[in-house]
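LAB NOTEBOOK - FOLDING QUEUE
OPERATOR: T.R.
BATCH SIZE: 2
PURPOSE: Compare the predicted structure-token outputs for two unrelated chains run back to back under identical settings.
PRIORITY: normal
REVIEWER: second-year student, initials M.K.

ITEM 1
FIELD SEQUENCE / FIELD STRUCTURE:
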Amino acid sequence: MTSTTPLPTPLPVMAVTCLEDRAHVERTAALSLTAGPQRLRLGPISPLAVDHTLRTELAAAQGAVQVLAARVTRDWTPRSADPPGADDSPLRHRLHELETALRTGEQQVQRLTARLALLDQLAADLLREIGEGTGLGEAEPVRWARELDRVAAEQDTHAERLRALRAELAELTRQRHAALDALTAAEAEPPELTAHLDLTVLAERAGPANLTVRHLTPCALWRPAYRAVFADGRLRLESDAMVWQATGEDWSGVRLTLSTARSALAGDPPQLHEDRLTLRELSGEERRTVEVELREEEISTLGPDSAPGAGPGGQTGELPGVDDGGEVRVLTAADPADLPGDGRAHRVPLAGFTVPGQAERVAAPELSPLVSEVVTFRNPAAHPLLAGPVELVRGSGFVGRGELRFTAAGAAAELAFPGADDIRLIREFEESQGTSGLPGLGQRTVLTRTVRVHVSRLSAPGEQGAQGLTLRERIPVSEVSAVEVRLRKEACDPPPTEVDAEGVLRWDLSLPPSARRTVTLVYEVTASAKVAGLTTG
């Protein structure tokens, strides 16, 4: 066994497979081995490498070769407290000057505060002396006035200096924060924790060998993203991958593979909780009444791991998961990717296609008074489109952001572009309550709801041609037999074109220039006398 350890051999990252919350890294190196056992140090590598996932493969051109031991060795080097040197950037020198000025200013503040405390104590002693001297008949008004004036003058001087110094320190603190932010954005701090791969190798003959190392690392993830360009009835959809990684090293020119596999889900079994079911007799009041309630249901649009929220696209502060339709999907970047380890989002192109798109103007006045242009297309790719955010681009440029739901190969998908502002919508809602039948003989409560949507088209003088508009409203859907919802088609003006199983109604309107239309929707909610909880509003 050799007693000396050679200089570390570079072990660059050649291929990366990004998972939903981690990455599988592949490294390669060309080694020159000597006959017999030997120790090798390779790296540096990311200190976040997961030790128990470390796998090595060593192949020699001649003779047998074997890896006897492999481990990750980490070294911690504390940050130097010395001032920046000549090789450091002017930004680091500026930050050092500001920190030095802040420390000096804080020391001056402490001295001035202590000086003011002594002056306050001196003023208190002087006032006590004046009280005692006056009581004993030994008054010295001239000396007392002179001493009080001197103490007050020194207090004013030191208080003014303290105020000015605190204002200066506040400005220095602001400049220090700005310099620190600029330094963080421009330069990376030298790592305090470094790691190397130590190998013990047994080679039958001396010669070259190829080493492959694979391991998992956290702090790396990806999410799908899209860019949609719609013009002249054709839609260009480009799929990209947004990749974040803060592993402490840069990935340059790597073969990037993107997978929706969730390796963490198989790590721990689900927690089992006791669930007891008991039976009891219903009370008389419970037999006579049926509790119902009106509820709104929201459907997440970015997969089962996302949740509606106040953020853009209905997202919360947390990054939503990848919706892959329940099956692991693997995507590959066409070109080598450069991914700095700065923790920021980097866009990697994946693929793109151009398909015909059918556009229609759609309005849902209950949700928004604006009109959207919904573009429908079919996925021509051989693989499904994962759910993700979409940047929407028209002929005038970027117009907004939307969302693409999970779309299987060959399936239809929709994208909502912002529509024109030449259509105005005003929605009115009325509700009345009444009864039907005789008391005690099947009397029922009837809620009649009327929705009116006033549609107007603003047209320029001389404009010709009608424009189509799809208007959508909804009615409740009952889940209990004691409550019935009935659409009064005879009172609807005009009658809806379509009513689906979820209670969404559709009208296809044709609006000539400067046209005004009123769409009226009337429906009834009928409940038996034993129903409770059905309120108006």
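ITEM 2
FIELD SEQUENCE / FIELD STRUCTURE:
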Amino acid sequence: MSENTDIKNVLTECHTCLKQYDLKSRVPRRMPCCSETVCEPCLTSCQTNGRLTCPLCNRETPEHKGVSNLLVDPFVSKLLSLNTTSPLACTFCSFNNPAVSKCCQCNALLCQSCISTHSLNKLPINHDVISIDLIKQQRALRSETLSRTLSLQSMNVLGELKEKGEEVMTRMKQLDDVLKNIGQSRKSAVGDINKCFDNLQKELQERRQFLLSQVELRADQHASTVKHAKASHQVLNEKIRKLSQNISRGRKYSHSAIISLLQETAKDVEFARKGVCFVPSNTQHLFSILQTAGLVRSITFTPVEKPWGVPDAVIYNEISLDPINIPQVSNGDVGFLSHSRAHSEQTCSLGDQVVVLKTTGKNRTLFCPQLEWDTSTANRSVTTSGPVITNTRPEPPLFNSGCRIQADRHVMTSKPLLMRNGQLAMFQVKVKYSPKMLIQDNKMLFEVCLTDSPIDSVWSQPSGLSVNLASCSHHQLCLRVVYDNQLLEDTPVAQNEVGVSRNLHLGFLLNSARNEIHVIDVEDVRVISTVTDVDFDNPLWLMMMLAWPSWANMAVALASGTRMDVSKDINRLLSSL
């Protein structure tokens, strides 16, 4: 490459990207802020929100109307049109002397003689004149810097791509785990359903055989009785026939023999008709049970955002249950239940107890839903048995279906509380605990909560009602009532002592007519706290959390349905609410 070509290439390359100008795609545009020239693509990339910032001096171009409206540098355009083999001549004089310098302001090429003349001119006295050799050195240095920058950018891009690839691989592994869990839960669900219906089928077959055998046994007993009666009548009839024949033939019998035969009675039965049948209403009842058993409920555990103050290592799960199509329980015929049970018997509908609270002038119906803990939602470190839950590890341990990340010592009830408009419902929780160590400050021993959005948590339930027993100041244990993360009650109830066994008996009265929940101390017969503005539109799920076995021995029993008794004092308290 000739020296003239080299000089021309230096003077006709973009100051930003160091690529050669042309008059089609890389048009040289002159910046009004610093009189430097930048190619059109580089300027286009410097536009943001209608503003153009110079890539060389970082000043914003005022009254910017678009890159295409900027002046095309006439000097660069002239250089592009020149023959590269001809020398670059001085543009300041008419002698065509070879150019050795350039004026940065007026973009004039200067020969050695014109440099001093140009500097003495009054107009360009503040212009900067730079030699073409120095321009070459600056461009070379800039090219090296740009190359290094591009190299660093490439390295950064490679690093980002590597990091992105690792994130993708990690997520792929997580998705593989999700697929594995889905497969495992599918296998577990299929096995549980088959086992359930196999057992049901076995029970049905055994029940059918039992009913058939009972029919055969009772029918045989009835038939045998009738056959004996018939045989007795046949014997008596034969005696009467023979005696009649003999008398007709002239044979004589004593009067006493005839009277004895007339007075003789055959063995008989006390019924005119007798049989066995299967009552059709039993079939209807059986169908209703099968329909209830056919309600398929799937449980989904989805990670959610952790509440404030919870360590990053702690995983929270929101629990959703499908479908929500839960049959409401009819109150049926209402009976009376008092503390002495002196009135009529309690009435139940599908195991749910109905109590009438007698008040002055009117009666109020109290609905007591039948609740039990659901082992399918239980953590593997708790033991459930019907309405009772303990913090001992079950033997054998519960099978992990793989469909959830099991949080600490949680369990839910097998059905939610679905309140009707204006309904009054109640259940009770009996807690027995004995600390094995001094409980650290602000640590929970147990929590019972009512929520429409259950979440596996290691602390207070963030949504809905939470009633928990926790250590507090002055070496005491406090009973706390929290609703939607707002503390409503914090009452000391016991000393923080080791080895002392204590009991708590809590009642929960739900009033959908007033949108209230009353938390009641059943032993002391008092209202601990009242929660207002409760939303009863959604089903409320009852959850329980127990402390670690190393902290305390814990046992909690649900008193609901027919297991819940209403004392005289509680009856009076409920009637006043």
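REVIEWER COMMENT (ITEM 2): The domain at 3-138 is CATH 3.30.40.10 (Herpes Virus-1).
FOLLOW-UP: none requested
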